[in-house]
Amino acid sequence: HKISSKKVCSPKTLKYYLVVIHKFVYLGNFISRILPLLQLPAVDEWPIQRINNVHSVLQIIRTLVSPTNPAQATSSCQQAMFTSGILKAICDLLIANGVPRNPLTEAIYTVAELVRGHNDNQSFLESVKSYESPPKDILLLLLCTMLSDKQPFDMRCAVLYVFQCYLYRNDFGKMKIVQKLLPSEKEVTETCISNLLCRGLFNKEPLNSWFSAVVLSHALIDNPEGKEKLLNVKLSSSDNDPPTLLQQIVSSIQTNDKAQFKIGYLMFLSTWFAHCSLAVESFLKINTGIPYFITQTNRLENEEIEEIVSGLSTFVMGICLAFNPDTVENFKKDSLRHLITKRIGVETFIDKLNDVSRNESYTRASKHPQPTAQDSNCLLLDYEFCKLFKMLEGMIMRSLNTLPGQDDSEKLVTNQKLIEELNATVDSLKNELSEKTNRIEELCRLANDFRDDTDRIKTELFRLQENHMSLIQAYQLKENELESYRRLLEMHGIWQSENPIVNQQQESMVNATAIAGGLPPLQQQQQQQPQEEGTTTHQRTLEESFRNDLNV
Predict the structure, then answer these.
(1) Fewest CB atoms less than 10 Å from the CB: which of 60, 199, 349, 493?
(2) Where is the composition biased (Low complexity) (predicted)?
(3) Per residue in 200-257, pLDDT tens?
(4) Where are the alpha helices (DSSP H) in 299-344?
């Protein structure tokens, strides 16, 4: 079904329609019917109508598994797509030859959202191999596509989205990439994913470096063990003492003038340092790190992209302040705070952070996990990095606003006030929760009472209906018996009150006898009286018998 409207729906209305569509397609078991539309043709031909059909089907699938849908609805559809074989069919499109650019790019985006956050689908994607000899992993082929400057920009962005979704909540996949970078890994080859990402990180093309930095950043999200192990990665070099990955990144930031290079590196360092004191310690031991970032922060930028570089440099220093382990002599927390205040200024520092969140690239990137830049020059910030920036910005400002040299008693008073405020908030929330809990319990009791009353009324109604039917049946039986007795009495000439014709005939016979000169009236009455008495006695006997039968 094609849904179109000239009016722009509100987010709430759109969400409602998406839920309705999901229930219609999923509960109606229509997902399995999509599979024949995605099967590859016997002849390698792609007419325009087939291209349009496949593109429309892929858009329907993406609608069902979109990250903006309710999580339960998305997960159930992802599982149904895997069970019905649709995920496999779309992966076959990716490794097939001759697939046009438009449906191929849409298929890559669709695979990304089919595996996002779903471990079974992520494992399946990792196991898919090409048809060539020797077969290659589909992830490796996709990575080569992303790092090739000969491929279209939108297709490279689609492959980036695949890796972002593949690593989303995939602890095994994240650690696998990190493990392949470690020196102790014996099976490392030049064609492995980790090695290609590391080479791409220091590629001369800015977009390649940016792509690689973002993928490696996603491998470190919610991965504290991976962050610590990544500190042991050393790059291959002819020197006896090869640089570590961290040292090489810091050096590349300082020697490269292109902004997209620096933004990719700074996002990677921010993700690496967040909640990892060991990584912050290793960075602070590099003598040129903090001085260079201070210089970057103090630069007067005229271009929007340079504002992002300056703001991200400020953000990295803020992370080093917030997660400072106080183990590096010249850059302990108080020393670093004093250095920032003296060399940059608190207001300037905060303004630099605000420049990032006010930037159009930040606004665009924070709306959806899928990259939405129109060209390579606009691809600057990543969705997950924007989430990290928003989460840590307030923490950095609080760390900076703590006065250097503040004694323990003042810190204790400040913390005590904060604790009291938090306790008051907790008590208020507890009271509110208690009230709502009591209200819910009361409503549950009322619902149970209504349910019991309804059951009781239904039982009583059923009993009354049964009694009513029994009475109707008994009444019908008695009516039938009365009818039979009435007919019996009529046959014996006893039921005269209800037969006026018979009464008239009897009266006519009596009058005719008197006129014909029969017995005088008195004699007639005397002669008729014994007959009437006999008839009355006989009628009473029959009536008593009739009553007895009725009583029985």
Answers:
(1) 493
(2) 522-531
(3) 999 999 999 999 999 999 999 999 999 999 999 998 766 677 899 999 999 999 999 8
(4) 304-322, 333-343
Same domain, 214 and 67: no
Residue at which a domain ends, from 387, 406, 425: 406
Rounded distance between C-alpha atoms, residue 398 and residue 376, angstroms? 36
Amino acid identity for residue 168 in this structure: Y
The answer to whether residue 233 is domain-embedded is yes
Work out the number of other CB atoms within 10 angstroms of the CB of residue 55: 15
Give CA separation, 440 vs 40, 112, 410, 448, in Å.
55, 41, 44, 12
Long-range contacts of 123-130 (CB under 8 A, 24+ apart): 123/172, 124/82, 124/87, 124/88, 124/91, 125/87, 125/91, 125/166, 126/166, 126/173, 128/88, 128/91, 128/95, 130/95
Please tell me whether residues 230 and 373 are part of one structural domain: yes
- Across-strand partners of 244? 234
Report yes or no: 299 and 307 within 8 Å, Cβ to Cβ: no
Provide mean pLDDT across the span 446-460. 89
User: Of the candidates 294, 286, 288, 427, which has an alpha carbon nearest to the alpha carbon of residue 348?
Assistant: 294
Residue entry with tokens 């204790």: 412
Domain co-membership, 128 together with 208: no
- Does a structural domain hold residue 28? yes
User: 274 and 317: one domain?
Assistant: yes
Q: Which two tokens stand for residue 308?
A: 């992002």
* DSSP assignment letter at 169: T
Least confidently predicted of 104-113, 360-369, 418-427:
418-427
Q: The pTM is what? A: 0.70
Query: Lowest-confidence range among 44-58, 471-485, 499-513?
Result: 499-513
The pLDDT tens digits of the residues spanning 520-540 come to 444 444 444 444 455 555 556
Question: Residue 217 falls within a domain, yes or no?
Answer: yes
Confidence (pLDDT) at 28: 46
Task: Count the domains in the chain.
Answer: 2
Find out whether 369 and 163 touch, Cβ atoms under 8 Å: no
Identify the domain containing residue 13 by its residue range: 9-174
Domain boundary among 378, 406, 434: 406
Decide if pLDDT at 280 tops 80. yes
pLDDT tens-digit readout, 332-350: 999 999 999 999 999 999 9
pLDDT digits (tens, 9 = 90+) for 150-199: 999 999 999 999 999 999 999 999 999 999 998 764 555 457 899 999 99
Q: Give 126-154 as a 3 state SS string.
A: HHCECCCCCCCEHHHHHHHHHCCCCCCHH
Assess whether 17 and 133 both reside in one domain: yes
